[in-house]
Amino acid sequence: MSDKPTVAIIGASSDRSKFGNKSIRAHLAQGYEVFPVNPKGGEIEGLTTYASIADVPVEQLNRVSLYVPPKVGEKLLPEIAAKGCDELWLNPGSESEQLVQAARDAGLEPIVACSIVDVGESPGSFGD
Description:
alpha/beta; CoA-bd; CoA binding domain protein; NAD(P)-bd_dom_sf
């Protein structure tokens, strides 16, 4: 196991124009061990993609970053809470008042902001 911080990108995409892909590249550039999560599985940016966060092979993640609609996020909360994370990032478009409250009710402290900007990258610097 490495000493790198870990992040699961839920809603990871192989489409390089989507934020679910830019986030993978931004976190990799900043030294994170990245776990893409997408029900389709496969490989994204050369990384094994996990069908669910439960499949990610670490006990607890430093960060989980959501790139899915709020209703999808709400359905995934029990699985995210069961996996455990230090930070739950609700990126623009993935947040709703209901999701924020549901996350708090699940014992998570959601951060409503762009995780790409947080790691010191600009989403615009990751072209297609």
